[in-house]
Predict the structure.
Amino acid sequence: MGKYIGCDFGDWEEMDRSSVSECDFSSARLQDCRLLNCDMKGILIPKWPCFCLLNPAEARDFVISQQWPKKIGLTLDIYTDSDRECVAIFGDASVLAKESGLSLSEIRALLQIIPGVNIVD
């Protein structure tokens, strides 16, 4: 529970055994937070308007090949410019909506086309 901004959960170096497992973030608000070197099985992600981008480095080619509204494109560029140790990154669509002037439904439609995006209602 709670609100977390810019937090890393997990370890950059420890790849064999993560310090993050079986975590329930479903009641949290996460913005610009990363999960590092962990197995996403058993990790419960927050509900919309939060969203989760799994394996952000793998979505990079798709993200940079698209035309995005300026603020959204910048945020997605930052999210996907990640090392492989980052297995997921969380964003808050309400923050993106406020910063970009778009509605939550417009933000959701943009996010849903990105490979690896997970949205929980």
About this structure: The CA atoms of residues 7 and 33 lie 5 Å apart. The helical segments are 60-64, 70-80, 93-100, 104-111.
